Structures are given as structure tokens and as C-alpha cells.
Amino acid sequence: MGFIEFLKSVAMLMKVAKKPSKAEFTVALKITFLGVIVLGMIAFIIRFVAIALQTV
User: N or C: the chain end with fewer CB closer than 10 Å?
Assistant: First the structure.
């Protein structure tokens, strides 16, 4: 893909894209925060187990 083709695709995307409504933005934000919290909890549990196994 050359640079000119890339610019054409960007222009096409900008024509099709629309600003999300407040409700859509809120849902996307909630899903993002939920994902961050779940990944953080998984990382915490793995770290906690690793520390517990090192002390044994």
C-alpha cells in the first residue's frame, strides 16, 4: 500500500465516520473501564500467587 492509497483510505474513513452519541460513548467508556479492572485483578492475583509461592 503506497502513501497515496493510504491517504485515500483515510479520506474515505473520515467521510464514513461519525461522532458517537453520548449513550454510545458512555457504553464504550464503561466497557473500557471494566476491561482495565478485570485485567488489573488478574495481574494482582497472579502477582499475589507468585509472591506466596516464593515464600514457601
Answer: C
- The DSSP letter of residue 7 is H
HSE of 39, CA atoms in CB hemisphere, 13 A: 6
Q: What does the block give as the cell for 23?
A: 449513550
Q: Does a structural domain hold residue 41?
A: yes
Domain of 31 in residue numbering reads as: 18-55
Phi, psi of 19 (to 5 degrees): -75, 130
Has residue 1 got a pLDDT over 80? no
Q: How many domains does the chain have?
A: 1
pTM of the complete model: 0.64
